[in-house]
Structure formats: structure tokens, C-alpha cells
Design a protein that fits this description.
The protein is mainly α. The chain has helices spanning about 25-30, 40-45, 50-55, 60-120, 125, 130-160. The protein is elongated.
Length: about 170
């Protein structure tokens, strides 16, 4: 089992309370500068540089302190990202499986209600309380059948209309 502060992919308990997570829009994300390969080496170079060399280059101690904190947060985010992504994947897949199971059950129940209604003396009494369920389950099939009939009607009308005679084209 992984430590919630240092989760591994597959962990279901994550503690990211030490991170100040931010929410940005896709438009904002597009404008951000992305770190390239080699960023770790560049940051390490600054952080481990001699204070005198930094002073000669005009790099203040405050900038180094800021960079140190930002880099620590970035590394922490890199550490937890695989576990967060895996957890999001597990949540989505579990939701997908639950939705599948619900759809199967709804379909079975709808078919049972329809069969009972067809065999009942008073079909409306059996079916009416479940109109939303039956509309959900059988509505798309009814709509598709209506569309097929409409298309078939247009095809029949086209076949029955007289052909337009065309004059031969001379070269």
C-alpha cells in the first residue's frame, strides 16, 4: 500500500493537501510557457551555483528562494501526477462499467414491463407508470423506424415520378 502523501499509480487515497492546486481555463493554458527537456538540469544549475557567481550575474537571493519553492512544488506535482492520472482513469472506467450495468438492468426491466403490458387485459394500467422508462429505452428505436419509413416514402415517391426526358447532347 502506498503512502497517501507519496502515492503510486493505482492508489485510491491521495493526500495533496500540501499543494496549492490551481484551476485555469484552456485559453490560459495555451498561453503558458511549457518546460522543455533539460529543465531539471537548468534549475539545478541555478540552485547549486555559487552565491558570488549569482551576485555577479545579478540574480538575487530572493529569486533563488522563489525558484527553490517553485521547483519543490513542481517536483511534488511530477511525483503525484501518475497516481492522479491512474485514479482518474479508474474513476472513469468504474463509472463506465456502472453505466453499462445500469443500462442492462434498465433494458431488462423495460422489456419485462412491455411483455407484461402486452399480456395484460389493461395494458395502460401496467405500462403507464413507466412511461419515462419506456420512452428512454424504446424511443430511439421508434425514432429510427420512423426515419426509415420517411426515407422509404421519399424513395417510393421518387420512383413513381415521371422521368425527365433529356435531349441528346451533340458534339
Amino acid at each position: 500500500m502506498s503512502d497517501p502523501k507519496h502515492p503510486r499509480p493505482g492508489a485510491q487515497v491521495l493526500d495533496l493537501s500540501d499543494l496549492a492546486l490551481k484551476d485555469i481555463t484552456p485559453e490560459q493554458a495555451q498561453k503558458l510557457t511549457k518546460p522543455r527537456d533539460g529543465i531539471a538540469k537548468a534549475v539545478t544549475n541555478v540552485l547549486l551555483s555559487d552565491p558570488e557567481a549569482r551576485k555577479r550575474a545579478g540574480v538575487s537571493d530572493d529569486e533563488v528562494v522563489e525558484l527553490t519553492a517553485l521547483w519543490a512544488d513542481y517536483q511534488r506535482l511530477e511525483e503525484v501526477l501518475p497516481a492522479v492520472e491512474k485514479l482518474a482513469e479508474l474513476v472513469k472506467e468504474t463509472r463506465q462499467l456502472s453505466g453499462h450495468e445500469i443500462a442492462i438492468r434498465v433494458g431488462e426491466i423495460a422489456n419485462q414491463i412491455r411483455r407484461r403490458g402486452e399480456r395484460s387485459i389493461n395494458e395502460g394500467e401496467v405500462v403507464a407508470p413507466f412511461s419515462a422508462l419506456l420512452d428512454y429505452q424504446f424511443g430511439p428505436a421508434a425514432k429510427a423506424a420512423a426515419t426509415r419509413e420517411k426515407a422509404k416514402g421519399k424513395a417510393d415517391a421518387t420512383a413513381q415520378s415521371p422521368a425527365i426526358a433529356r435531349a441528346p447532347v451533340e458534339d
